[in-house]
Amino acid sequence: MTKLEKMSYSAKAHTTGSRENGASRTSDGQLDVKLSVPGTPGSVPEKITHDRRRFLRNAAVTIAAAEFGTIASADAQSRTKEDVPPTKPGTNTSFGPLKQIDAGLLNVGYAEAGRGNGPPVILLHGWPYDIHSYIDVAPLLASAGYRVIVPHLRGYGATRFLSDATFRNGQPSVVALDIVHLMDALGIDKAVIAGFDWGARTANVISALWPERCKAMVSVSGYLIGSQESGKAPLPPNAELQWWYQYYFATERGRAGYDKYRHEFSKLIWQLTSPKWKFTDAAFDRSAAAFDNPDHVSIVIHNYRWRLGLAEGEPKYNDLEERLAGAPIISVPTITMEGDANGAPHPPASLFAKKFSGKYAHRTVKGGIGHNLPQEAPQAFAQAVIDVDGY
After folding, report:
1. Angle in degrees, CA 330, 331, 335, rounded to 5
2. Nearest 10 degrees: CA dihedral of 117, 54, 2, 375?
3. Angle, CA 171 vertex, CA 314 and CA 258 arms, to 5°
4. Cα torsion 42, 48, 53, 55: sign
5. CA spacing 20 to 30 A to 168: which of 45, 103, 232, 380?
């Protein structure tokens, strides 16, 4: 067996014995996911009987689907957890040539993988990250038959504003509207939407405001919809300390510092939010190139200042922000995720579980997984996308 990343679902000491898709469920209703590498302590060898069942099942599916010429699309709708192959993080290094398309106020740069007529999945990155957070997730989903779209958000990478006169707005509702416009431009009526950090918040907003566009959602760190009003509430000192960069960005010195040291600043954030992730300089540099976008600093600074009520948004989006200020319930099927070593501020799952009224599950991914969960644990993330698509 090669030394590739492997998932094994393990119950905590208080497991009730109930199971979902073959995974143990804890007494609080959460799935406990443990990552291990074959050949290392804690790995669980595959059993011959397990391989035999999987081989026979896959052979039957392949033969049946081949008769109708729809192997990938037929199987993509019925994936189970064991169908995502073991994947070592960092296996892939490039998406190949990116595509560009005019969408709303932007010309969006995006990566695309998989079959053009496959069920669509949109993967959204956060700050300070870029599309390479999904460098290993996209091929896994493409091989499962999906059409995978990974866009650079406004202010990142190859994405550009169509007009110099457009206000460089970082409001969460506006970032979400960018993705809706991208879906329109690509002819996508409805998609599974998945993300972390800004990307998870964007997925949350789309699911809340435009649920008809979101088939299902994967959201790292749960429910992230906020408002300027909620941002005014003081937090305990330890919690405020975790948001130190927001207060730095609130000053002109902070803006100038981020502009001058954007790569160094971003690498520090990577280290603090994923303290056990041993990323390489090459992996960081691939993402850091996206921060050289001419609008990057303006978008980032406006986003964080707006959240603290220190910067105005655009009045034409007030209706959207008012709806979000009510902390709307999300009705689309959802899987929330968390790494067991996430160094970024994040609420416990028990605080947001009731914000999801559709079919819902929470998964904790173990093995020293930090904030950039898709890049650190691509197999677990891809599996969640496939599973939630079947809800």
Report:
1. 75
2. 40
3. 115
4. positive
5. 232
Q: What is the pTM of this model?
A: 0.81
Name residue 382's amino acid: A
What is the four-CA torsion angle of 245, 250, 255, 261, rounded to 10 degrees?
A: -10
Amino acid at position 317, single letter: Y
**pLDDT tens across 95-136, in order?**
999 999 999 999 999 999 999 999 999 999 999 999 999 999
The tokens describing 313, both together, are 């948004």
Asked whether residue 222 carries a pLDDT value surpassing 90, the answer given is yes
Give the model's confidence band at 83: pLDDT under 50 very low, under 70 low, under 90 confident, else very high.
confident
Residue 26 has pLDDT above 60, yes or no: no
- The percentage of residues in the chain with a pLDDT greater than 90, rounded to a whole number, is 77
What is the domain partition of the chain in residue ranges? 99-361
Give the span between the Cα atoms of 199 and 218, in whole angstroms.
Answer: 10
3-state secondary structure of 120: strand
| CA torsion through residues 131, 291, 196, 8, sign | positive
CA distances to 4, 138, 139, 146 from 378, in Å: 12, 9, 10, 16
CATH architecture of 99-361: 3-Layer(aba) Sandwich (3.40)
